[in-house]
Amino acid sequence: MELLEEHRCFDGWQQRWRHDSTTLNCAMTFSIFLPPPRDTTPPPVVYWLSGLTCTDENFATKAGAQRVAAELGIVLVMPDTSPRGDDVADDDNYDLGKGAGFYLNATQAPWATHYRMYDYLRDELPALVQAQFNVAERSAICGHSMGGHGALILALKNPGKYTSVSAFAPIVNPTRVPWGQKAFSAYLGDDKAMWEAWDSCALMLKSDPASAIPTLIDQGDTDQFLADQLQPAVLAEAARQSQWPLTLRIQSGFDHSYWFIASFIEDHLRFHAQHLVK
């Protein structure tokens, strides 16, 4: 691993690292916030997944999460949104290719060589964080938009891995909305039956209520993508049918931006702390 940046922040440290990923077959960067130590107990981890066009730096520099994370004694891990590099397949549009990995494992050429963000986030990155930093095994996950989709599917597909999950304006039903249909067609092919494994609504309807974890979603009611891309009410209905403990909050006047995230990130971190910190 190579340390790219380090900054003192709220008595903790904000760092940025580069490492060679065997899962993604390229070099990857991630950001991490290490809170000030309280005692000898390793702190728990919250993974943050960002949305389309973002990198590992957007949340770190815009959300203002470090102050609360320092207070709560929580490590923040912020991975990139896709594989990167000259050899990595890309597309001219913002919603496919680099910056748009959709947190799945691609099966179609040319994407399958590098686009395995699901395996990277489920296995490789947590193992690396555990090996390189003094952190607890307990973790939670959250994200925004495409990253909210990623957080939800990682939680739903891996019972017991996370103590809680939250999201801002997540893409909850990608098999039925333009962003998801475009990405899934490219990354997974035309067999729509294969898409269901990466759709939060489909996964929740098939979930075991005994494995459900506390879930918080915030959605702004002036979000320009609410009606055609996000549709959180569909997930709320899936949660009702499957008895999944979902809290959906509609926030008046808020849009899809980081101003929205910055306004409510403290709520989300305190929500996760209830379940992480023992």
TrEMBL record:
Keyword Ion transport appears in the UniProt entry: no
Gene Ontology terms for molecular function: S-formylglutathione hydrolase activity
Alphabetical UniProt keywords: Hydrolase, Serine esterase
Catalytically driven reaction(s): S-formylglutathione + H2O = formate + glutathione + H(+)
UniProt keyword Hydrolase, yes or no: yes
Top-level EC class as recorded in UniProt: hydrolase
EC number: 3.1.2.12
Entry's family note: Belongs to the esterase D family.
Role noted for this protein: Serine hydrolase involved in the detoxification of formaldehyde.
Protein name, entry field: S-formylglutathione hydrolase
Species the sequence originates in: Scandinavium lactucae
